[in-house]
Design goal:
11 strands; Rossmann fold; 19 helices; three-stranded antiparallel sheet; two-stranded parallel ribbon; mainly alpha; single chain; Arc Repressor Mutant, subunit A; binds glutamic acid
């Protein structure tokens, strides 16, 4: 390839296809993507599939789908190719052999002759003597030639290191942390420790953005870069993402859902991207809502925090709700009818829509009116049926809505019936315009001397069979006179 085509900033996301990708896991991808887009560079997807035991069928497709769903487009990757491919480590085994050969020829790698039992004995011995176990204390004097049947180990040159991590700042370690680690396992696959260094060099990666679990190995990596005559890329270590409470690292068990689950539930990619970026990054102001373009313009590694970032799903809910509210009604409507995905992976397609089944026969105009009324309260699209069902079908009378209501349960049944009957009589006179309904509802408050929390709740329950609805006058107006009165009659009959 010609180097002139490769810009100086090249970042990568290098997931192992071992499982689904929770919202925390994709943050590294987002930060790498933001940096590449900001600098006019390239963002590369590399699948690190060298641990065959941990591999999960279909995980790499899932990773690619997740990136695309969030709009994190990559310039090079396993399914689209590129000048530095292949982009799947299992397709690069020969290349690791070449890098390994370079180390062997330079006297910087050797075959590890020990059996697992022998290694275990060395470990136990070190433990007994209360000293850290270092493989290099047991370097064989005359290692056999490496034929691939034994692991290949790096022959380290222990020394102290000081380096600057673009996020964590200045770091230093003593020589005791540098050891002879495995480069190639006896199954022929390289370790992450070796493969990522070869690949980052071959793919001309300028910035390595990754999680904290690798930071203790950096001195070993620095030693290996030297042995290979490579200039290390910029290293940037992300802070942990902590679960909602306490100091636990975020995991699936803490409710961190898979990215595609959020998409299926109708979280907006823009909101998810904004939320994920805010886990550990801010621009130094109080601003919380950032468009994608703003994030690209403002992102910088040195504003990533060092300490753990918090995953707060309620904040995501709030943030998504605020994106939903900001959408022009037509755009929101388009999203509700075109999920691009069934709500459940195997659900019968409701014409790929978030609307309740009962909405199937309703006109677009009516649905748009409904949507306009609930837009304010809608937090994510899969909530739509719950919030709008009663606009499309008569729900059965639910006595608990009254008996369990904080205010209404204090009233005698006869009193409730009387109140509702009076309301019905007044509403029956209405032309059901919003203005007239509003006036009548206020008139009823005055005439009955009741609080809105009593009277309006009662009418709301009768007309919707739901504990909450948009504005009562607007709701009844949209339901229409016949349907509203009929529902009040049903409620009266049940009282
Ligand atoms: N394959 C490693 C992982 O999934 C990647 C770490 C890195 O970004 O270098 O944890």
């Amino acid at each position: 390839m010609s180097d002139s085509n490769i810009s100086s900033v090249r970042t990568r996301f290098a997931p192992s296809p071992t499982g689904l990708l929770h919202v925390g896991g994709i943050r590294t991808a987002l930060f790498a993507w933001l940096l590449a887009r900001q600098q006019g560079g390239q963002f590369i997807l590399r699948i690190e599939d060298t641990d065959q035991k941990r591999e999960m069928q279909g995980a790499d497709q899932h990773l690619m789908d997740s990136l695309r769903a969030l709009g994190l487009d990559y310039d090079e990757g396993p399914d689209i190719g590129g000048p530095c491919g292949p982009y799947r480590q299992s397709d690069r085994l020969e290349r690791y052999q070449e890098w390994a050969r370079q180390l062997i020829d330079a006297g910087r790698a050797y075959a590890d002759p020990y059996s697992p039992e022998e290694l275990q004995a060395f470990r136990e011995q070190a433990q007994k003597e209360k000293r850290p176990f270092l493989f290099r204390d047991h370097r064989p004097e005359n290692p056999p030639a490496w034929d691939g049947s034994k692991p290949l180990r790096f022959k380290s040159e222990p020394k102290a290191y000081s380096w600057t991590d673009a996020v964590m700042g200045k770091l230093s370690t003593g020589p005791e942390v540098v050891d002879d680690f495995i480069l190639i396992k006896s199954d022929g696959y390289p370790t992450y420790n070796f493969a990522h260094i070869c690949d980052d060099a071959d793919m001309k990666i300028s910035h390595v953005i990754r999680g904290q679990e690798f930071i203790s190995s950096v001195p070993n990596y620095l030693n290996l870069y030297e042995a290979l005559g490579l200039e290390p890329p910029v290293l940037a270590t992300m802070p942990h993402i902590l679960a909602g409470e306490g100091n636990k690292k975020l995991s699936k068990r803490d409710g961190a859902k898979d990215v595609l689950d959020y998409i299926r539930e109708g979280y907006l990619p823009e909101a998810l991207v904004n939320f994920i970026a805010s886990m550990g990054w801010n621009d130094g102001t109080e601003q919380e809502i950032f468009s994608r373009d703003e994030l690209i313009a403002k992102f910088s590694l040195d504003r990533i925090q060092k300490s753990g970032a918090r995953f707060d799903e309620r904040r995501l809910l709030w943030m998504n709700g605020s994106y939903v509210r900001e959408l022009p009604l037509e755009d929101l409507y388009a999203k509700t009818i075109n999920t691009g995905m069934a709500v459940e992976p195997n659900a019968a397609p409701q014409a790929g829509s978030y609307w309740p089944e009962a909405a199937a026969d309703a006109s677009v105009e009516y649905r748009m009116h409904v949507l306009e009324l609930v837009q304010e309260r809608l937090k994510y699209l899969a909530e739509l049926p719950e919030l709008t069902m009663f606009f499309f079908e008569d729900l059965p009378v639910d006595p608990e809505l009254i008996s369990g209501h904080k205010q209404l349960k204090k009233l005698e049944p006869t009193e409730i019936k009387e109140l509702l009957q009076r309301s019905r009589d007044s509403l029956a006179e209405s032309d059901f315009s919003i203005d007239d309904l509003t006036q009548r509802l206020n008139g009823l408050l005055e005439a009955t001397g009741q609080k809105p929390a009593v009277l309006f709740s009662l009418i709301r329950i009768a007309t919707t069979q739901s504990p909450a609805s948009p504005g009562l006058a607007e709701t009844m107006h949209l339901l229409g006179k016949d349907r509203s009165l009929q529902r009040i009659d049903n409620q009266l009959a049940a009282l």
